[in-house]
């Protein structure tokens, strides 16, 4: 199998985009994806966006999301922006696109300053729909991890997230604690784990251990989850700047069942071709 790809970045999150709207090839195997995700044997990525034709008449394309370990996941906020950027380069394609994702329809607009804003849909708090094992829904849960009882927020942004507050993201034990929470028995489908420090009502620092990847320079859905969790506790305003190791994202959410909006960069790094 041979295919062309774009290697991109969104706030430092390494994204490979493969356009299969015409060829309609099946994605590589899990072993092949692991090889491609490793920079020693492939282009290297945190997530790969496999773009195909849309089923819905309103949608410009569909996509599937694969992590560097070869696992398929439901959503990738930074990857969506890269797909929208790719579509906007096509002659006469416009600037706003509806995309079909495993988590549902997503709307993305390429802005004049080259950033992309994405309607990520409303957050989901019902434990069964995250999924998370809990008898009742709550804004905060106690999670027993490595002999510690942690106060955490749990929600879905199309994929499961656990958010905990830390005094300083620089000293947070992201590698060990993130991996333990990711695989915790109360997350049947595993979880992305956000380590958040609130600077003030309009600004947070964040590091994210991504499910199936480990810590990345940025996570779009993780940024959304961290802001939504803070809003639920009335600690953040409706628009928040999220400072991640790889860059800055802006998340807006008015609350309730309104959609979460994610805005950030999408930058082309290189292009290439893969032979498998």
Largest beta-sheet details: 18 strands, mixed
CATH fold assignment of the largest domain:
Diaminopimelate Epimerase, Chain A, domain 1
| CATH H-level homologous superfamily name of the largest domain | Diaminopimelate Epimerase, Chain A, domain 1
What is the gyration radius calculated from CA atoms? 18 Å
Number of domains: 2
Q: Which structural class best describes the helix and strand composition?
A: alpha+beta
Overall 3D form = globular
Poorly predicted runs of 5 or more residues: none
Q: Helical amount among residues, as a percent range?
A: 10-25%
Q: What's the architecture of the largest domain in CATH terms?
A: Roll
Number of strands: 18
How does this model look, in words?
- The chain is α+β, with helices and mostly antiparallel strands and 276 residues long.
- The chain contains 4 helices and 18 strands.
- The chain has an 18-stranded mixed β-sheet that branches.
């Amino acid at each position: 199998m041979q295919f062309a790809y774009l290697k991109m970045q969104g706030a430092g999150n390494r994204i490979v985009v493969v356009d299969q709207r015409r060829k309609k090839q099946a994605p590589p195997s899990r072993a092949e994806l692991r090889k491609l995700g490793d920079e020693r044997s492939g282009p290297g990525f945190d997530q790969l966006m496999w773009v195909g034709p849309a089923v819905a008449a309103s949608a410009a394309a569909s996509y599937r999301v694969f992590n560097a370990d070869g696992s398929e996941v439901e959503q990738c906020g930074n990857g969506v922006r890269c797909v929208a950027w790719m579509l906007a380069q096509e002659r006469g394609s416009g600037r706003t696109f509806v995309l079909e994702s495993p988590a549902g329809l997503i709307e993305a607009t390429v802005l004049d300053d080259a950033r992309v804003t994405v309607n990520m849909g409303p957050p989901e708090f019902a434990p069964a729909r995250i999924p998370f094992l809990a008898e009742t829904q709550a804004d905060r849960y106690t999670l027993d991890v490595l002999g510690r009882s942690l106060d955490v927020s749990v929600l879905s942004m199309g994929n499961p997230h656990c958010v905990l507050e830390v005094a300083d993201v620089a000293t947070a034990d992201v590698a060990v604690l993130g991996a333990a929470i990711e695989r915790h028995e109360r997350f049947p489908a595993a979880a992305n784990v956000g380590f958040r420090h609130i600077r003030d009502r309009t600004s947070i620092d964040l590091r994210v251990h991504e499910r199936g990847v480990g810590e990345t320079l940025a996570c779009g859905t993780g940024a959304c989850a961290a802001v939504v969790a803070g809003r639920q506790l009335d600690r953040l305003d409706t628009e928040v700047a999220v400072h991640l190791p790889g860059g800055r994202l802006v998340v807006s959410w008015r609350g309730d069942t309104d959609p979460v909006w994610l805005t950030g960069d999408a930058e082309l790094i290189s292009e290439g071709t893969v032979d498998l």
